[in-house]
């Protein structure tokens, strides 16, 4: 049995517009100049507290920024104009992995448990993930705790797992946990940075994951 752990923002869903706007509103609420789009996306993957610590430093209002961000994000999410679409091929790949008797699915994300629950419900993914690790469950990426907990919950050894993500934090976390690190090119961090952080390989389509992990439609499947 293999465990495939997926990041969320920048890997499963394209949430960049929502993230950047929520940050802009949070900074404005605190009377601060919002970061550039590039700067905003550079901290995607970190838990909120760590993300705002990076953006404003320990002497800045990082705690208040986190609270303002959550308020802005929740307000924006109620507006259909700010939805978080799945990236191309994601829905089919998740379904394909879920059907296989040879793979377990997991999530490791800087999102809150509430945010992940919303995503899972929205896309009809209830019951598909054997383990879900969020910012509420473990230290922020790149600390390996999320992956170590995912491995323990799934009952899978590190050598039988893979982490798929779009940020340097995902790659560094995977390496620290002894898990294969596969980077995706459609996310938010520069490709060279992913390689420097330990990506074993970069894929430009989620379909390219299948041969890397030995996923075969002819293998036994659930149901």
TrEMBL record:
A GO biological process held by the record: DNA repair
A GO CC term attached to the entry: cytosol
Highest taxon of the lineage: Bacteria
One Pfam short name: HAD_2
InterPro entries xrefs: HAD-like_hydrolase_sf, HAD-like_sf, HAD-SF_hydro_IA, HAD_2, HAD_sf, PGP-like_dom2
GO molecular function: phosphoglycolate phosphatase activity
NCBIfam families linked to this entry: HAD-SF-IA-v1 (TIGR01549), HAD-SF-IA-v3 (TIGR01509)
Protein name per its UniProtKB record: Phosphoglycolate phosphatase
Lineage: Bacteria, Pseudomonadati, Pseudomonadota, Alphaproteobacteria, Hyphomicrobiales
């Amino acid at each position: 049995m293999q465990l495939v752990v997926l990041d969320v923002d920048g890997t499963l869903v394209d949430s960049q517009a929502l993230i950047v706007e929520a940050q802009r509103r949070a900074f404005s609420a605190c009377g601060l100049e919002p970061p550039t789009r590039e700067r905003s996306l550079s901290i995607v993957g970190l838990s909120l507290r760590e993300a705002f610590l990076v953006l404003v430093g320990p002497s800045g209002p990082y705690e208040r920024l986190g609270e303002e961000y959550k308020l802005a994000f929740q307000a924006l999410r109620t507006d259909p104009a700010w939805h978080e679409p799945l990236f191309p091929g994601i829905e089919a790949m998740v379904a394909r992995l879920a059907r296989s008797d040879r793979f377990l699915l997991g999530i490791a994300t800087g999102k809150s448990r509430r945010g992940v629950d919303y995503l899972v419900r929205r896309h009809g993914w209830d019951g598909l993930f054997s383990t879900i690790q969020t910012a509420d469950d473990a230290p922020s990426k790149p600390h390996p705790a999320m992956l170590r907990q995912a491995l323990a919950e799934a009952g899978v050894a590190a050598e039988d797992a893979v982490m798929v993500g779009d940020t340097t934090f995902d790659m560094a976390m995977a390496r620290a946990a002894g898990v294969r690190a596969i980077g995706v090119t459609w996310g938010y961090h520069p490709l060279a940075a992913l390689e420097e952080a330990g990506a074993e390989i970069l894929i430009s389509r989620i379909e390219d994951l299948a041969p890397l992990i030995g996923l075969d439609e002819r293998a036994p499947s659930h149901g």
